[in-house]
Design a protein that fits this description.
The chain contains two helices and seven strands. The protein is an alpha+beta fold and 130 residues long. It has a single domain, classed as Lipocalin. It has a seven-stranded antiparallel sheet, with helices on both faces. The chain is globular. The termini are close together.
């Protein structure tokens, strides 16, 4: 039996899949920074030269969203939650996301030892629980 949290995540995934993008991939995400721990879902939409992504927590609140330009290998943060809206955090997040996006679609564990950041991206299967 699945709990209320799984039900909310399933509804969120169903709503996001209605967007109609050609290639969409979903990942469970965990971001650890010293005593801070964020977890949620990352949805990536591949639109040719640009990959758009958004990270949501378990309650459906957007943590941040970004665009990755493949030809320029550039990350642009399009939205970030107020608690993370610090220039040094955004700069480091862009650098780390650039390295992570290049390694997807496989399971990725990326560690930034200088700033003690750890990112874990685990692919979600398309199977729904019964």
């Amino acid at each position: 039996m699945y709990g209320w949290r799984s039900f909310r995540i399933l509804i969120l995934l169903m709503l996001l899949s209605v967007a109609g993008y050609a290639q969409q991939s979903r990942y469970l995400v965990q971001i650890e920074l010293r005593q801070v721990y964020l977890s949620g879902i990352c949805v990536l939409n591949d639109e040719g030269d640009i990959t758009k992504g958004a990270v949501f927590n378990e309650f459906g609140v957007s943590t941040f969203s970004f665009e990755y330009q493949k030809d320029k290998e550039r990350i642009k943060l399009t939205q970030i939650m107020p608690a993370m809206n610090r220039c040094y955090l955004k700069r480091q997040l862009k650098k780390d996301l650039k390295a992570i996006v290049k390694q997807l679609p496989r399971n990725v564990v990326y560690e930034n030892k200088k700033y003690q950041l750890k990112y874990t991206f685990t692919p979600l299967s398309d199977e729904t629980p019964e």
